[in-house]
Amino acid sequence: MVEKNLDFRSDTVTKPTPEMREASYKAVLGDDVYGDDPEVNELERVGAEIFGKEAGLFVTSGTMGNAVAVLAHTQRGDEIILEKKSHIYVNEVGGLAVMGQLMSRTIDGIKGHMDPADIQAAVRVDNIHFPPTTLLCIENTHNSAGGIALTVDQMKSYRDVANANNLGVHLDGARVFNAAVALGVDVKDIAKHVDTVQLCLSKGLAAPVGSLVVGPQDIIDKARKYRKMLGGGMRQAGIIAAPGIIAVTEMVDRLAEDHANAKVLAEGLSKIGIKVVNEVQTNMVYVDFSPIGWTAEDWNKACADLGWKSRGRGTGTRLVTHYGIEEEDIRGFLEGIAKLV
Ligand SMILES: Cc1ncc(COP(=O)(O)O)c(C=O)c1O
């Protein structure tokens, strides 16, 4: 029986499954800073294997995962290329500048996709006046573009331009499993075009805490050291790593339900007159409720009256489907909204 979680704000709100809670309880623990925690070691091993990479690193959050990966790829004063609305650039508190002393060069994507020609044009030539460009960051699925899944061909095109310019490639794959499920490909097919991947365990995969960074051994070794520097060396972390193992081994196929539910939600809202502004490919529906004359306050109150959490801002909001929301819940929500409209 799935515990209900009627909350559209994000898939970060997901709560662990009963099996995950049981796994935490039974976890055999050790001190992970000494490399002694069997659950963490297994999570890092299995995570790396699933992505076809040499090594893995368990970190506290997606933000920490991106930070340690980017730090491991770069040196102070380098320039890195990112999509203009990417989470790393917009939503990670400027950590690139603060911790890495990095310059950010942004590119306007179309539905989260950067044109490789724009990437090529953004790479600095060798000139005494310029910082060296050393890293390309990609986001898949792309959150603010609407949960868009960048295709394997697009990933390859990034790799090609990166290789031509000797750049490392880091993937913010907070929701990379959503991308793989939506595209119907193995996540390895996406990951093979990048050096490092940060993947969140605590979003649609429903683990309570944490992310993994996977990649080549030497980069993961450096990232491990940065994790320690940032205070992310956890001790008996197996208690949170054990649910992570279930997340990556058992919770991936289920994401297809979230994607199907997002489509039901989008179609239902459109019928009611609420505008869906993104192409719904995965678990996100971005809406504009101004066509029905509602403000954010009207929306938030309607949702609260129906027993749902949602956070309207201005004339719209993002609705995210996830573990704890089932199709019948969505249909009930749509009926409720239709009546209020
Ligand atoms: C694309 C993307 N990257 C990174 C993160 C950061 O993850 P965390 O909240 O675990 O720091 C998020 C969080 O929502 C995200 O959407």
Task: Describe, in plain words, how this protein is organized in 3D.
- The strands form 2 sheets. Strands 1-7-6-5-4-2-3 form a 7-stranded mixed beta sheet, with helices on both faces. A 3-stranded antiparallel beta sheet has the order 8-9-10, covered by helices on one side.
- It is globular and about 65 Å long.
- The longest helix is centred in the C-terminal third of the chain and has 18 residues, at 255-272.
- It is of the alpha/beta class and 341 residues long.
- The protein has 2 domains: 18-250, Type I PLP-dependent aspartate aminotransferase-like (Major domain) (Aspartate Aminotransferase, domain 2, 3-Layer(aba) Sandwich), CATH 3.40.640.10; 254-340, Alpha-Beta Complex (Aspartate Aminotransferase, domain 1).
- Helix 1 packs across helix 11 (238-250) and helix 12 runs parallel beside helix 14.
- 43% of the residues lie in helices and 15% in strands.
- The protein has helices at residues 18-26, 38-51, 62-73, 87-91, 95-100, 116-122, 152-164, 176-183, 187-191, 217-229, 238-250, 255-272, 296-305, 327-340; strands at residues 55-59, 79-83, 103-107, 133-139, 168-173, 196-200, 211-215, 275-276, 284-288, 316-320.
- Residues 12, 61-63, 87, 139, 143, 172, 174, 200, 211 line the site of pyridoxal-5'-phosphate (PLP).
